[in-house]
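Entry type: protein chain
Record version: 2
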Amino acid sequence: MSEKPELDRVPPLIDALSTPLLRVRSIAVAGLARQRDARALGPIIESVRGLDGADVEDVCQYISDVIEALASFGDRTALKPLVSLLDAEFDDLHPIVWNLTEDDRSAIESMAELYVYDVEPLKEIMYGPYSVGVKKMMISLLMEVDTLDADRVLLDLVQDREVDEYLVSEAIYVLGVHGCRDAFEPICRVMADRERYTDDTRSSAAVALGRIGDQRALAPLVVVLADQDDAPYSMTAECAADALEMLVLDEDEEEWGEEPVEGDDEVFGVLIEALASPDPDMQVLGVRGLGALGDSRAVPQILEALRNWEESEEYLTFCREAITAVGTIGDASAVTPLFETLDEIEQESEVFTDHFLNSQELYEEAFQAVAGMGEEIVGTLHEIVAGEYGLVIRAMAVQTLEYFHDQYSEAVLIEALENRDEQEVAAWAADALGRRGSTGAVAPLCRVACDTRHYEDICRLSAIGALGEIGDPRALRTLLEMISKEEHYGERASDAYEAFESIIEMMEDRRE
């Protein structure tokens, strides 16, 4: 008996998009989203025509459903025709935009996932012939994207004197939420410019400075508070006072090595003496004790002891324990001095360099301890990975980023992965992304894995291995293509097979 052909649901669901009842249209949109059939993209977008006179609340919900559905297709080109149609169809987009960006952000959050690794389409809309409402939507998408590239677009907006002031204010708000320190000076200029900007925009700038947390903001905030034209009743002055409170009363970080934090002074003194002992074993015990004590006064002396490098196994052991101790103490301001010290050692000691490259697993505990300082050090690690540091030092920063699970650290690793000029760092970044199971890195890892033109063998091998470790089925198509073209990919085709097999096994495990 022959099987019945599977029913094609797409045409009737597309027809349902033209019914007058928006509830029915929403059901049809949700059904088409499940099908993920490209035939539905155009009709879903076109279904927002003719709604301008309908119930506002129903329309807002339907537009949200449409955006949620379009996001599920994974097609980043669908956004531009949608916002063009919204501008053409609606005289007032404010209720729709408010619903999307303030009342229920779920659709914006879903759509933003498509632009985490490429914000250029959002930037094109931001500077294109679109309404302020549409551009406010783009700022909300950039807020959810929350990457360095997203912040750069927002920074450009703040500094562009042709941009609508409302959009400047919204961009400043997002930069404050992101804690973007690069925005400090442009936001200070906005807050200080009473001639150009309204009280609303300048107050947003003051709040953002408080959120960013840069202590340099104290002086400009005090200037605003001392200005007779602002104080005491303007919104800017009130927000500047709030920001000042955030910076002064909520600030619990201290400059490393300046003041005692915790710990018994007598014990501290004994451990410092042990650190200065000529006996390598006593030095190791001293630095371990200082880490356990958690007193940030020890950091400068630990780093000074690190600089007394020797070509010996004992020194390498001390080095690992010293890194662990600095991480355990947990003073985030010590990260840059730590890596600068290690950079000095790398330049002087080939033994240190070779040992790390050949025995990275021995340093896992040390850099886990550094990562334990928290997400606030990710920006510093980004500067190290992208900076003028030695190869080993950047590898150490990459290894530290492996132990984070936030979007920013993932974006830093992907940026390192895609840097064709630093193939070894790219390979380390691929390894780190694989070990941390970064599903957001699947697409760039796939590109690197099969790019024989721009990436060396070692880098592509790491990318393939990472895909196998992550276990995301989205990588199967790329791996299958590599397997089927063994004459082109050579040994990497065999590696692709192993990664393919690993993903299938992980799928089976998840099913169980």
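Comment: The chain has a mean pLDDT of 87.
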